[in-house]
Structures are given as C-alpha cells and as structure tokens.
Amino acid sequence: xxxxxxxxxxxxxxxxxxxxxxxxxxxxxxxxxxxxxxxxxxx
Length: 43
Prior knowledge:
This protein is an all-beta fold and 43 residues long. It has strands spanning 10-11, 15-24, 27-34, 40-42. The protein is built from no helices and four strands. The chain starts with 9 loop residues before the first strand and ends with a strand.
C-alpha cells in the first residue's frame, strides 16, 4: 500500500508537508516543516 501526502497536509500533528523531494523503491521523501521547532526537515 502506497501513501501519498499533499502539500499542506499535517503528519503526526507535528510536520507540515511542503513538497516532494523524491520517490524510489523504498518510498517517498518529503520536505516538511517541524511545527514545534519551525525548522525544515526531510520525512
């Protein structure tokens, strides 16, 4: 089962999806903002 997240979606009540960074055989990597620290992270 493949999960796709949309721009602006909140994950785990902590991360806001900004963009898709890449996709591969193991899944998708997203650029996100940590809503607690206000830093950009990769998920």
